[in-house]
Every structure is written in C-alpha cells, then in structure tokens.
Inverse folding.
C-alpha cells in the first residue's frame, strides 16, 4: 500500500547534526534498497522532502517513520494513497 | 487496518436531501454490519462526524468513502492509525 | 458521555523524557482499565494520538487530561461527541 | 454541564429570512426560560454570537443546536467547559 | 460593557510557576469580587480559559489584562460583546 | 472609546450594487460628520477598508455596523483599542 | 525536471461532469504515455490527487496543467522538486 | 515606488469571460507600455500572477488595480517593497 | 502616503527589556512629533499595536520600522492605504 | 527558468549575526552578478525578501538557496513562474 509523506526537518542550532544526518542517510538508503521507501524528492528551497512509501500496514509505516534518526526533529504528515482511475 | 475519518457535510439548499440522507443512512448501517465502519460519532453542533474504519487496504477505504451517497457534498479527511504503545 | 481528544506531544530535547513517558503509559493503562479511556490510537508518523474518553462530566475529563504526566508538553484538543443517527 | 458555543450565521440572499429569524428568536427565548441557554451575547460587528449552554449531556446539546431553525445556515463550534480553579 | 476574552497560558519549563500562578489566582479572585471578571471557565483539556469581563472602557480592560501576573506568558484575544436581540 | 474595524465587501454579481453603494456612502458620510466614524482608509487593491470608530459603547458600535447598507455583504472584524503608553 | 502537483477537483452540481471527466481521463492517459505525467495517485477519501510531472520547463508544465479539461474546476498547487542527497 | 502584487482570478462559470479577459489583456499591455506594470509572471498551475508595479503613490496603485476589468473576480494582495541592502 | 502597520512584540524572558522599551518609547515620541507616526493605538489585551504612518516612500517606512529598538523582537505587517471614496 | 522565492529570516538572539549577514550579502551580490538572482526586494517592515531567480533547473535553484549562509535561519518558499499571456 502506498503512502505520501511530507517530512520537514527542524534541527535546533545546538544539536550535533552531522552524525544524525549521516545515520538518517544510511537508513534512507537501506529502506530504499529494501523497497519500502520507493520515492524521495527534495522540496526546492526547504529542508523538507516528499516521499512515497510502499508498506503492507499502517503500523509498519509508523515503525519506519518513528525510528528514523531525525524523527525527533521532524514534522511528518502522512496521506494514504489509492489507485487513481486514470492511472495507466 | 484502522483509519480515522472526519466527514463534514455541506448540502446546498436546493438539493433534495431526504432521499440522499436516507440512502447514506442505509449504506452506513450496511458498512457497520459488515464491519468496515467500526465507529461513528456525531460532532456536537456540527453536520459532521468522526468515524473509524477497519479495512484491509487504502483502495478499499477510498472505494467505500467515494461511493457514499453524500460523498459529493462532503469534505473528507483521512488519517491512518497505528497501534499505540500504551494501548491495552 | 463521549469525547474525542487529539493529543500532540512536543518534548523539548533537554527534558528527561523516559520517566515521564513511563508514567504516562502507566496512567494510560490505568484509565483504560477503569474504562474512562476507551480508545487510543497512534497517528501514523506523528508523536500524537486520537483518543475517545467516556466520562460523566466535563470536569472529570479535564481533571484526567490535565493530570497526565505529559500534559505540560502536550497540545490537546477536545471535541464533544453525540450519538450519530446512523449508528447501529 | 457547561458548553461554550460560537454560532456564525450565513443566510444566502435568496432565503426568506424573516420567518426563520422569528422562529429562531422564539426558540432562543424558550431555551433561555427553560435554563439550557444560560448566556447569549452578540459579537460586535458580526452576525454571530457567543453562548453558554447548561445541559446534562452532549446528546442533548446536539439535539438543541441541530434543531435550531437557523441551524442549516450556521457554522457552529462547541467547546466543553470545566470549573476554573480560580472561580469564586 | 461586556468583553469576551480567551487566554492561553504557555509557561516555559524553566519559569518558577508556583508563585506566579498563586498571584494570578489571588488577582482573579479580587477581580471577580470587584465585579469586573464576571465569568471564568476552564477550556477542557487546555491550559486556557474563556472569560467575560464587565468594564466601563477599553482602557480599563487593557489595564486589568496586561497587569495580570501571567500576562507575559499568555496569548490573549479580546472580542467586544453587544446585547443580543434574542436575549431575555 | 476607540475600535479598529476591518470591513471586506463581497457583493455577489447578481446584486444591484449601485443603490446599495450609494446608500453606504451617504451613511458613511453621516457617521463621519456626527463623529463616530473617525478614520476610513481604503486597503490598496482590495474592496476593503480599515476604519476607526469612536463610540461610547459596544452596543452602539454594533448598531452602527449592522445597520450599514452593505452589512449583509460584508465580513467585519472589530478590535477594541486602548491608549498606547507611547502615544503623545 | 520534476514537479509535485496537488489537484483538488470541485465540480459544481449543475455542471455536466461526465464528458469533462472522460476527456480528463483521456488526456491524463496521453500525458502518462508521453512521459510528462510520471506518477498519479488518488488521495484516499478526497476528489484530489498527488501527481509528479517530468517536464523540461515551467512553461510546459503550466501549458499542460492549464489545458486539462477539469482545470477550471481545480485548485492546483505546484512544488518544484530537486534530487534528494539520500536518493539511491 | 515598487509594490509586489498577487492576483488570483476566480471567474464564476456563468460569466461571459472572453470579452473581460480580452479587455484585461489590453489594459495590462497598456500599463506595461506606460511603465507602471513592470513585471508580470504566471504562477505555474494557477489562474494567478505575481506582478511588480512601479507607481508614485498608493492611491495610483489602487486606482490601477481596482479599474482592471477582472478586478471584481480577483483576490488581490499588495505588499510594499523597499530597496534591499544587498541589491546591486 | 499612509500605511497601516500592525506590530506584535515578543520579548524573550531572558532579554533586558526595560532599556529597550524606554528607547522604543523615546523613538515613538520622536516619530510622532516629526509627523511620520500619525496614529498609535494599543490592541486591548495584547502586547501589540495598530499604527498609521505617513511617509513619502516605502523605503523611508522600512528604514523607520527596521530601526525601531524593538524591531528584532517584533512581528510587523504593513498594509498600504489609499483614499477611501466615502472619506469626507 | 524563473522562480519566485520568499525568504523570511529568523536569527536567534544568541547567534553572531554580523559575519553571517556579511557573507550572505557577498553571496547575493555574486549571484546577481552571475545572473541567477535577477530581482531582490525588501518586504517593507519585515526581515524578509521577495526574489526572482533565473536558473536552468530545479536542482541548481536548490543548491543556490540551500548554500546561502543564512539558509539555516530562513523559511523559504519557492513558486515556479511561467510566461504570462499578457506579458509584452
């Protein structure tokens, strides 16, 4: 099942961001390789992304998102997607 | 899988509401009996409801919602739900 | 009487969260066991939940919510619910 | 139990308002006399009011509000009230 | 003259709240006793209240509100009220 | 007492605006001459104005505003003003 | 270049929707086949979609969107996308 | 003096748009030729534009904007601009 | 030329406000005496004001506002004003 | 290709702003000289600007914006622009 996710990152200045960002990147690569994180785009001009996730259940999506290293510093909004009638 | 749905109904004055509302009620009862529509509450003071749906996929949820008789006159917002760690 | 409650948790980084979260969980379990907290769902991707409370009065609901260990770090919105005419 | 209610009235130009408004006024007087509608204030400059209702249950409040003659033309928002610790 | 006031309190964690809250309570009691603060309700689930003030002028209302001990930590919104035509 | 008022006019295309606008203008001039309507500015690019009213009571302000010919087609927001401590 | 587009469709009740919707579907299929409209998902519960477009210039994207049969009845929001540093 | 203007056009379906749009275009060209309307860009995907106007006074800007043929069908927002300290 | 300005002041608790506020007051008096700052009202219940400025150019207004001692702690919104057709 | 960008700067009080602001200015001048940053205006009364960028791709725009010295302290919103049909 597909989910549209917007993530906005707000890292406070006093946080040691580098290691977190590196872990986040590693995890994102893992999830892309394992197929859950199917699309990942940077929103131009913002520390934010639009992503599409393909996961079997809501619970798995929440586990994935809430275990992301940057999760404590992110505002996340999830929208469930369905098949569009005009989709070829 | 569980989904939280808010439905706000806006029926234009010139629509013949009675038959639509009756069909909507019949359909809602059907869906409650078949188990998809697990919770249905009226928001006090508003022609709106909070509902919980239990469906296997996003597509099924969309089919259910978009086929509701009042769908053309509703503003609908869907939020996917996961199991809460404190849930007994 | 039923109330729909949304709770968004915002824990500042410098707060010692673990004990607070543990107390919150214990209290939530208590309230579910005693029947006031009837439904508790995690909003996918967010440190937030939708809940339903069944309490006899507004005052009791406020006492329950405002005494939750995480209350000082939560944004809470309460919506009173009524019986829906299509509810079976 | 006390509830704070905001009502914004939007009467389309082609509606025959006079009889509706008269019925609304009569009903409001009835509810004030029977004690449910305890406070009713006009918001300066707006076709809107702030009201306080004293009713035993959510369902009764919804029945009262949704049966008001102007209900189809109103945007209503209900906020449950509790006793304030500084209230004398 | 009557004014509807909403007060949302946001006390930063590092503020010594107890004395402030006690002073606020004492002041609220004073103003209720002297008749300016005529109604005071807790908004269920929130560190916020709806109040009604009866004061002769805008200036007096501002002096009262801006001298409240918690004023620096409050978001306040004031709405002037008029007599409602259906008020008995 | 002074009040800041924003008025946004939304005249539906099928309304015969000219006579209404003329009556509104006449009334506005009356109120300026009698001193209640002390300031009246056009918001650049919008069919809207910022105004300042000087009236003894909230009720009088509401009577003035709600009796304006364009009132049924206006969104009005009123903010009570007090004397600023830096005002010379 | 990639663009994220949200389209919300609001078809007035008195519009003959069927032919429009059919033309829209045909056009959407064309654009998917020609590669500009790369992704098209239905937002669950809403007459809305999230789409991704791959077009060489802003102008081409606007021409495509503004020439869609349903364009007069759509609210469209376009967000330019860039390559995400964690994209594999 | 420079002003940033956003114009969103909402033409009701039953308005005979063609002549209005043609007049609007003619007027826009006139104002660009006479130098007041210095920049005019289409917002991708929307019947809206961002524009920059160079006019000596607020009044002249309002006269220009409010006399545009499409003005009754536009939502306009004006932001005054100043010279940026980093502007070369 | 006239501009409507709203200023909301947010002074962090750890700022030494007194000297800033005193400088702000002195500057405000200066600008009122020199005629740029023509109107200054306190918004009841809020650390905010509505003001009217009369300045020849946008640049001068920005220089005035951005050089106010409290500017770093203020949220400022400027609306250009034009002469209202009903203004006497 | 043209993009409309709004940048709102929020510099925390404890940040050493001067060097950052100087670097930002130098970079802005560079980008204006190299032609990407074609327009840059100060929004009157706000630490914010409206800008127009002319860049070949979304990615280049994001690289430019996200590498600005003040980027970590800015809220940025990008809107893609197309040629307006009335543009001369």
């Amino acid at each position: 099942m597909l989910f549209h996710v917007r993530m906005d990152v707000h890292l406070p200045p006093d946080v040691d961001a580098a290691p977190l960002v590196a872990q986040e990147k590693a995890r994102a690569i893992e999830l892309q390789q394992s197929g859950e994180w199917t699309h990942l785009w940077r929103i131009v001009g913002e520390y934010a992304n639009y992503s599409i996730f393909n996961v079997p259940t809501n619970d798995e999506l929440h586990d994935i998102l809430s275990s992301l290293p940057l999760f404590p510093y992110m505002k996340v909004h999830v929208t469930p997607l369905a098949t569009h009638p005009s989709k070829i």
